Amino acid sequence: MSETWFLILGSAVLTYLTRIGGYLVLARFERVHPRVEAALDAVPAAVLTAIVMPVFVEGDRAEKVVILLCAVLALRLSLLATVILGTVLVALARAAGLS
Prior knowledge:
The chain has 99 residues and is mostly helical. The chain is 81% helix and 0% strand.
């Protein structure tokens, strides 16, 4: 097996184990404390911020404009629609040579 496939398989197994581990831990409780629930609800926003901010700080002008546009569009569109639209806009900007 090549090194690349080994890394892909290993990453998939570790991802699965962390997800199922979290489920198994939380399944042992009848109710989740409101503070824990609030923290878990904040995770998606924190992950999205951790992905977007380095690109905004160090990215090209086109990427910064698209991120700002997506921030405005996110007020009206769903998260999935905003991510898809942002991805398409960045791809089009890069294809057009805007940097």
